[in-house]
Amino acid sequence: MVFTHSAFLYDTDDAYVSLLSGFVNEGLERGETVAVAAAPDRVSLLRDALDGESRSVSFLPADEWYVRPARTIAGWAQILRTAAADGSPFVRLVGQIPYAGPYAPWLRFEAALNRSLAELDGHLLCPYDRKGLPDSLLRAAVRTHPRLHDGDWCDNAGYEKPEEFLAATPEAPWPVSGEPVVVVPVEKSVAGLRALVRDRATAEAWLPADRVEILVLAVSEIGTNSIRHGGADRELRVWLTADAVVTEVTDDGTTGPSPLAGYLLPRQGEIGGMGLWLVQQLCDALSIRQHGGLTRVRFAVRRG
C-alpha cells in the first residue's frame, strides 16, 4: 500500500489550473478514480480547464466535506477503500481546506492523515494559496506534508513526524465559564454516569433528543477509557454554554493517550478500541491535555 500526501504552494490561478488539471487528467487517462474537495470558485476553474472530462471527476462541496477533521478522514478513507474494492488501479484526491479560524484542528488533521491513511493506496494533493493564506498556515503546510510542489516536486525536508507535530500543536479546549452543573466521580462502571447524564439532559432540555444520545455515548466512551487507562482519581464535569454542552473527564494517570488518539481508522473486523475515534466523529470538539499531573479530555456537543 502506498499513500502519498503532498502540498502544492501556488501564487496564481494559472499555476493552480495548470498543475491540478495535469494531475487530474493524468489520472483519468489511466482509468484511476479522481475526487476533488474545494470551494466553488476553485471547482469552477478546474471544471473549465478539464472541459468535458470533468464529468468523470467526483466534486465534493468543501463546506460539507470539511466540517470535522475526523469525519473528513473517514470520508477520504471510504473513497480510497471503495475505489480499491471496485478495481480502480489508483486514486487521486485533491483536498483544499477552506481555512477559517481556529486553524489548529485542521492543521492537526493534515498531520494525522499521514498515519491515518498510510495503509491505503492513493495520492492526496492539498493546494495552498501563497497569496491568500497567512504565513503560519504555509509554514504548517510544509511541516505536515511529506511531498511538496513549490515550483517542482520534491521530497520535503521540512516535514515533521505526525506525533511530533500533534504534540506541539494542541487543540484548544472548548471555552467554559462559571461553575459546572454536574461534578461527579467516575467510579468503576459508567452505567451510573450514562443514566445521570441522560436523565439530567432530558429533564433540563440541554439538547434535542438525538443529540442527548450523542452526549451519552461520548460520556460512556471517554469514561470507559479513563477507567481502563487512567489513574484512580477520576471526575466528570459538565458545563452548559450558550451554544453547547461541554463535558470534561479528568484522571491522575501518569500517561495520557497517544497524540494520534482519535485520528486512526479502526481496523476492519476488530471489536473495541474505537472510543476516541467515535467521539471525534460524533462530537463537535475534542481536546486532550495533560497538565499538573492530570489528563483532561474535554468534548462538546452543540445544541443545534
Structure notes:
- It is a single chain.
- By secondary structure, the protein is α/β, with parallel strands linked by helices.
- It has 2 domains: 3-168, P-loop containing nucleotide triphosphate hydrolases (Rossmann fold); 182-302, Histidine kinase-like ATPase, C-terminal domain (Heat Shock Protein 90, 2-Layer Sandwich), CATH 3.30.565.
- The protein contains 10 helices and 12 strands.
- The strands form 2 sheets. The chain has a 7-stranded mixed beta sheet, sandwiched between helices. Strands 8-9-10-12-11 form a 5-stranded antiparallel beta sheet, with helices on one face.
- The longest helix is centred in the C-terminal third of the chain and has 21 residues, at 209-229.
- It is elongated and about 60 Å long.
- The model has no long low-confidence stretch (mean pLDDT 94).
What form results from the Cα inertia axes?
elongated
Instruction: Give the beta-strand count.
Output: 12
Mean pLDDT across the residues is 94
Question: What share of residues is helical?
Answer: 25-40%
Extract low-pLDDT stretches.
none
CATH architecture tag of the largest domain:
3-Layer(aba) Sandwich
Spell out the helices and strands N to C. Answer: EHEHEHHEHEHEEHEHHEEHEE
CATH fold naming of the largest domain: Rossmann fold
- The SS-based structural class is alpha/beta
Characterize the largest beta sheet: strand count, sense, and whether it forms a barrel. 7 strands, mixed
The count of helical stretches stands at 10
Instruction: Kindly report the spatial arrangement of strands forming the biggest sheet.
Output: 3-2-4-5-1-6-7
* Rg estimate, integer Å: 21 Å
Q: What's the CATH C level of the largest domain?
A: Alpha Beta
Oligomeric category: single chain
For this structure, what is the CATH homologous superfamily of the largest domain?
A: P-loop containing nucleotide triphosphate hydrolases
Q: Give the DSSP E fraction (strand runs of 2 or more residues).
A: 15-25%
